[in-house]
Amino acid sequence: MKIILFANTDWYLYNFRYSLAQALRDRGHEVILVSPAGPYGARLQADGFCWIPAPMERRSLNPLRELVLVLWLRRLIVDAHVDLVHGFTIKCAIYGSLAARLAGVPARVNAVAGMGYVFTSNDWKARFLRPLVRSLMRLALDGADARLILQNPDDAMLFEQAQLVDPARVRLIPGSGVNCQRFGYTARLREAGRFRVLLPARLLWDKGIAEYVEAARLLRAAGREIDCLLAGDPDPGNPAAVPETTLSNWVDSGLIQWLGHVDDMPGLYRSVDVVVLPSYREGLPKGLIEAGACALPLVTTDVPGCREVVTDGIDGLLVPARDAAALADAIARLLDDSELARRLGLAAREKVLREFDERIVIQRTIDVYAELLPESY
Prior knowledge:
The chain has 377 residues and is α/β, with parallel strands linked by helices. The protein has 16 helices and 13 strands. α1 packs across α3 and α2 packs across α16.
């Protein structure tokens, strides 16, 4: 088969769907990776993948430009004789699926990781776009030749209540999975005497960045010897991006250490004691799963997506969203109780091995392909 994997950044394809693309290629399928231009496209090409830059602007609201993108995708699909289009994130899922319908592609798979900015933000632009996006989703994502992959039951319930897709065509698959050999349990490399906390995420307000910084402020005011690390880059294509000037002010005040983009995430996880994600809502957060695979104790919010990874008191700690004081208390609790931290970390790794290993996720994704194109499997 010829399969297109379409995402809103080449970074997403490289970091989240590389293993899927590799598994499909190993099974003899031809994989075409499509995203806006970026530095990871060359890496994908160097590894032998066909990567094509798309004329896509993530923040564009220009109807003409968006129509041009859909027609460009349709032409690509027709010229390449594609059998299946798999779109990731809401915009790519909608446009990729519309283009596939126009091209008469026999199979459409769409993966929506969380509800995205349009559904999680309350600013005027998000509220304005919401009805339009709902209508486009109904048109693009449903149909007997389509399947919608969601990452948590809360999102599945929202899609059903909004009557966006026939529930019989929805499949729950927990994220993109994690390589549990690469992200393994080894001895900590922590600097003696310092307790290190890490938040690994895109630098968006709805990841709980402000609450994390406030928790760092509270912990410092209480005299706690804790280093609060932040790993990730700003995402200028997202309206919820934290400005770099704000990040620099936090660093200058000594509240956090901002590491920027980190290539060696397994090495970073080995150097810290706790991983936190005070997000407002997730699909299924890969950073938490990677950290859990490394047997780190996890602190996250009791919101959709996050509570699928962490069960409070069993394999991590849950705190209310937008509550910096509760976040600070949970971090302090793990500092004070090393046995609790160790027990939670080991339980987190067992859960990741059982539910989130990438081999499980890839096979379940391929099973969805087989539902639509059984003659190809």
